[in-house]
Amino acid sequence: MGYRIGVDVGGSFTDFAVLEEGSGQLRTLKVFSRPDQPGAEILAGLDRLQARDGIAPGDVGYFTHGTTVGINTVIQRNGPMLALFTTRNFEDVLEIARLKIPQIHNLYSVRPKPLVPRENVFGIDERTEATGAILHAPERADVARALAAARAAGAAGIVVAFLHACRNPENERAVAAMLAEMAPEMPVVTSSGTWPVIREFERTVTAVISGYVQPRVAHYLDRFEAALAGKGVPVPAHITKSNGGVMGIGQARAEPVQMILSGTASGVIGAGWLARECGFPKVLSLDIGGTSADVAVILDGQPQYGTGELIGDFQIHIPSVAVSSVGQGGGSVASVDDLGVLRVGPESAGSTPGPACYGRGGVRPTITDAMAAQNLIGHGDLGYGAVSVDHAAARAAIRPLAGRLGAPVEEVAGHIVDISVSAMYAEVSGLVSRFGIDPREFHLFAFGGAGAMLACYLARELDMKGVVVPPRPGCVSALGGLIADLKNDFIRTLYLDLDAKGVAALAAPLAELEATARDWLARQGHPGKGVVGVSADMRYRGQSYEIETVLEAGWIASGDVAAIAGAFHAEHARLFGHASEGAGVQMVNLRLVIAGATPKPAMPRPAPATDPAMPSDHVEAWFAGRPATVALYDREALAPGHAFDGPAIVRQDDTTTVVPPGFHVQVDDFGNLLIAKGA
User: Fold this and answer.
1) d(CA 349, CA 353)
2) What is the spatial distance between Cα 536 and Cα 550, in angstroms, rounded to a whole number?
3) CA-CA distance, 486 to 523, in Å (whole number)?
4) Cα–Cα distances in Å, from 235 out to 3, 113, 247?
5) How many domains does the chain have?
6) Which one of 368, 394, 576, 679 is CB 3.0 to 4.6 Å from 355, fit for a cystine?
7) Which residues fall in a coiled-coil region (predicted)?
8) What is the pLDDT of residues 95-118, one digit of tens each?
């Protein structure tokens, strides 16, 4: 019997989803993450699976893996010191950016400091025209001078991003080759090799993020691959990607930016599949782990995609699942600043030492400690027995903050939760505006170790239709990686007018992209041809930005200008409410995506309840600083048809669902908890 395993490594816990290929049965598991020993959590999980379920490493026929190591590195800003080599006289590209402030209505809003400080940006005397013609090639002496300055500044890696490299990468490649000879120990990232898209700032900041996460990602993947081989897993690993697909580990090591949203995209893919299978057409996914809270829009089971997703303080301009992340995870640290203001995040306690209530040496208060101090979690072991919550330790960690603020511990704990939810609300509000959706029509699909813990608080603030908590919310990201298709994106910048001549010029680059894509899929070991999708970034002549428009390859083959123009006008009208059908149109980028399908598990329907839902106990807990008697339910005892009112706590192996007063819970046909505000 063969098994397919999906693993999601988060900041605090590592989740396993195991699919038995013959029966379609799905198993789940959770163990502590080991950022101090990357790969150790994989070994621990495989040992647990063998001891608990008899699954030997040699029986594994497919292994895929998602991790938040990339995004956590950016959010926590704990990557290496970098240097940026750019075209001379364009050294301020990161400082100038797009001259936007993060919050235009906030007088105190400040732009984030770039990941590469201005003193570490060095100009290279080179130049490429907008057409791609080389005006001036870089000289070795100039590159050597910049390298010496970068070394003197303490740089541990170099990013090369030149003007117009998306049209011709020759100068970037030349400098990268020189650096490989002069400093073979120095990691080098080029913007054209990262994602060759137009616009210098967007391409540069994406390459900088890639260089910033590369050392930690490479270290992690090396340990991960060695752990699998040492354990006897006979198949090469796949890594989940930001675009919701998977790729080989070699590509992940070479292109770390492609996995920057690895863990978060996996969760959205898993949530989308579950939402579609269970009949929820409109959901916002809420994935809260130890470090961040991630929110995405899912319509009819399909995540929304885009470029320019926010990673901490920065946008990343590669095709990716549209996820907004904020540093508000279960391990986010609470503190009181010098002005006496209570703050939460983005710093996280991670899994080591973790929240104080985990009893692993942590002493700083976190969001998880705030929930424990209110006695809302910890009424059973968490993480499949990995954690026994210490309520006294949680209160002890919060007590210094309470002393500074002059308020009871339970009240301060409630405020920690309020501040965290407020930060999530601000992030979700931007996502809602971006996609033009009404949250009152959406369910909040909660998962991750802490998603169900905080979902009702956020849904109440957003006035949402309700909350959905799947049967195994702690392992949805691992499930997403397990069911994700092999998928890769390709792009070519062209700058063509939408006319007969321009459409005819698309045929050759489209054929090249398709050949490259099919070769990539074959190298991933997929037996089929896959499914190819074609799109173009298009705009009206004179506009500054493009919109991605889905095309049919047959339109390009037949030279159907009218069909391509009609698709663009329709998409423009959908997004902006109008179209100018008589205006000239330009095609800037040609895009192609290829996907190879993977097996999916069966969706079980539990037997319906025969008796009313009965709490296993009652406990005293706090909501908004006020004590209340709260019913405690065991998730495994709940079945379709059960219903009860809040306040309530639902405990299970991989998470805790907190139901505040005023909410009603029903269990649907698939075993999901449907939580909505009472009438």
Assistant:
1) 6
2) 7
3) 11
4) 11, 42, 14
5) 4
6) 368
7) none
8) 998 877 777 777 777 888 999 999
